Amino acid sequence: MAAIAEAMAPNGTVLGALMTFIGWGVCPLAIVLYILGTPARKRRLRRQADEQAAADTPAGDGPPPEPPSTDAAAPTPSAHRQP
Predict the structure, then answer these.
(1) Per-residue tens of pLDDT for the chain, all 83 residues
(2) Distance CA 6, CA 12 (A)
(3) Which of 16, 18, 37, 58 has an alpha carbon 20 to 30 Å from 74's alpha carbon atom?
């Protein structure tokens, strides 16, 4: 409303109204929203750190699984042959 009053005043300008809107409206609102968003940013960073830590730890105690063989005739290590 102060920006509208600045623009409509006899000695006011549109540039003055724009600067008033930015200086008294947008900047303070941006600061308040940044401060209010701090807890959410902390939770997001903590969750990302937990996910990264979970991805870095191995899932099991055994050795990693063997990659599949590219040779179709080769038996798999888990296959059993009957005599």
Answers:
(1) 888 888 889 998 999 999 999 999 999 999 999 999 999 999 999 999 999 888 877 665 556 667 776 765 655 556 555 65
(2) 5
(3) 58
Distance, CA of 22 to CA of 80 (rounded, Å):
76
Q: Give the separation between CA 30 and CA 45, rounded to whole angstroms.
A: 21
User: Residue 56: what residue type?
Assistant: D
Residue type, 47: R
Rounded Cα–Cα distance for residues 60 and 10 (Å): 77
Kindly state the greatest CA–CA separation across the chain: 105
Give residue 82's identity as a one-letter amino acid code.
Q
Q: For residue 66, with 0-12 CB atoms within 10 Å meaning exposed, 13-18 middle and 19 or more buried, which class applies?
A: exposed
Q: CB-side exposure of 77: number of CA atoms within 13 Å?
A: 5
Token pair belonging to 32: 């308040």
DSSP 1: -
